[in-house]
Design goal:
Order of helices and strands: EEHHHHHHHHHHHH
Strand order of the largest sheet: 1-2
Helix content: 55-70%
Number of strands: 2
Radius of gyration: 20 Å
Largest sheet: 2 strands, antiparallel
Oligomer: single chain
Strand content: under 5%
Shape: elongated
Number of helices: 12
């Protein structure tokens, strides 16, 4: 492990990341047994993190500076082996494309998109979701990552709106392509009313890069498309 001279953030190599969080890819596995095993691993990591946090609190009550420092280091170390804590210590700046933690950030977002109930129960963090989406949208990504994000957007527009989903418009604009538009057009013609409205709205915004993706813009678009189902309109409006 080394420290980035510009940010002071610890920068681990891909092998260290895999040792710490390689198991998290099981959270997005199609095999329920593999997913269940990953959830057990996550629960264990969360217990370790909570234990370290409790020791840190006890060290504070004892007013022993050296003990506090050691307890704090132990807590921060425990965080790095779990989600979402393992994704918090990342370089600041306009581009995370070379950050070794990027595959795990994408895994965290895909987990929320594909298995939202499990994500909400075990690792809910709307702030982490929002910041990761914004970081990814601002990055200069290679084609492999861009394809992954196109698939992620396709998944998101086909489900009921969830908190911070609006941020995915940033990603759609960043990875705009014939492939993305083709997937959105198919979703816009689907029987699923969520997919219809969300996909059409994203396509409308892609054609208007100067238009901000605000709640007011969404409501204005809905008013111009009165065929939108009432429950879709209400849920998307209430979401953040």
């Amino acid at each position: 492990m080394k420290s980035d001279a510009n940010t002071g953030v610890n920068v681990d190599g891909a092998d260290v990341w895999h040792e710490r969080l390689g198991w998290t890819f099981g959270l997005i596995a199609s095999d329920p047994a593999e997913r269940a095993a990953a959830l057990v691993r996550l629960a264990e990591a969360e217990r370790n993190t909570q234990d370290a946090w409790n020791r840190y609190n006890r060290a504070w009550r004892r007013r022993y500076p050296l003990g506090r420092q050691a307890a704090r280091r132990n807590y921060l170390e425990a965080l790095r082996y779990s989600l979402p804590g393992g994704l918090w210590d990342r370089p600041t700046g306009p581009d995370i494309s070379t950050w070794p933690g990027l595959p795990y950030a994408l895994c965290f977002l895909e987990w929320e998109a594909r298995y939202p109930h499990e994500w909400t129960r075990h690792a809910k963090s709307w702030g982490t979701k929002e910041s990761l989406i914004r970081d990814v949208a601002a990055a200069h990504l290679d084609e492999t990552v861009r394809r992954k994000l196109v698939e992620l957007i396709e998944t998101v527009v086909q489900r009921p709106y969830r908190c911070k989903d609006r941020e995915y418009v940033r990603v759609a604009r960043a990875v705009d392509s014939r492939d993305l538009r083709s997937r959105l057009e198919r979703a816009a013609c689907a029987d699923n009313p969520w997919a219809q409205r969300h996909a059409r709205y994203v396509l409308w915004l892609l054609d208007r890069p100067e238009v901000p993706n605000t709640r007011h813009v969404w409501q204005t678009w809905l008013a111009a498309h009165p065929e939108a189902p009432t429950d879709v309109a209400r849920e998307r409006s209430d979401g953040q």
